[in-house]
Specification:
Blueprint (H helix, E strand, L loop, with lengths): L3 H29 L9 H14 L1 H33 L1 H14 L8 H8 L3 H25 L3 H9 L5 H30 L1 H4 L8 H10 L3 H30 L3
Helix pairs in contact: 2-11, 3-4, 3-6, 3-8, 3-10, 5-6, 6-8, 7-8, 8-11, 10-11
Length: 254
């Protein structure tokens, strides 16, 4: 656990960044004299944020979005990590699977929205599918990279020290050595999934931060749009901080 001084030092840059953004935001409102429907002042957005928190509505949207992202992210990890371990370990298998992966990887999750609606309807499955597409490839590529990047010296040392089978060598040497890179892939993929939540919740969602933003746009409530954006930003930073702690534990041996 970080000492209080280090924790404060890590939070301080974000506070300065928030103050800078609010000041610039207020200056833009003052000098452009933008209509409140286009760009509300920071105080109005803060009041809307506080109101949604007080009524509990914001927590409902956050819970729905977070549940979708976590579900898709866990599903991606369950598929991508074993597949990436196999691709990184066995070259022939990689040569067989990699062309398929590379054909699908450049396709944006947004492009899958029409098919998600046709295949899964407008329920939760379609939304999770879109986020799955966004989270799958970072986990897979980092897992492959982690396995391939294991130092050959470690592999030889494992063989000398008693890892007589490929299974034992993989379990005791290769997987632990690749774990920091896999954790980085999990961290990146959660970020891409969190970013894709807006697209996913365009599929006839009735709750969620993406729905909150889209609804604010439709009724010309830019303060709602900004509240949704701020909530996504704050949660993204908080979740990324958790992944950094986990990554530090793996990197430094706990």
């Amino acid at each position: 656990m970080k000492p209080p001084a280090k924790t404060a030092a890590s939070i301080l840059p974000y506070l300065w960044a928030a103050i800078f953004i609010v000041v610039v935001w207020q200056l833009v409102v003052v000098f452009t004299k933008a209509h409140v429907a286009l760009l509300p002042p920071p105080l109005l957005a803060a009041e809307t944020f506080a109101h949604l928190v007080a009524t509990g509505e914001l927590f409902v949207h956050v819970g729905a979005s977070l549940g979708r992202v976590v579900s898709a992210w866990v599903l991606s990890a369950l598929v991508a990590i074993p597949l990436g371990l196999a691709m990184g370990r066995w070259r022939r298998f990689e040569h067989l699977v990699d062309p398929v992966i590379e054909l699908f990887r450049p396709i944006s999750p947004l492009a899958w929205i029409p098919l998600a609606i046709l295949w899964f309807g407008i329920g939760e499955t379609g939304k999770i599918f879109i986020i799955f597409i966004a989270t799958f490839f970072p986990i897979l590529l980092n897992t492959v990279s982690g396995v391939k990047g294991v130092d050959p010296v470690l592999i030889r040392a494992g063989q000398v020290l008693g890892c007589e089978t490929d299974q034992a060598l993989f379990r005791k040497v290769i997987l632990p050595a690749a774990m920091p890179t896999i954790v980085v892939g999990l961290r990146i993929s959660f970020g891409t999934g969190w970013a894709a939540i807006i697209a996913a919740e365009l599929v006839a969602a009735q709750v969620g931060l993406g729905y909150l933003i889209a609804d604010g746009m439709e009724i010309l409530r830019s303060d709602l749009v900004l509240v949704g954006m701020v909530a996504i930003g704050i949660l993204g930073v908080a979740i990324d901080a958790v992944f950094r702690i986990v990554n530090d534990r793996y990197s430094w041996g706990g």
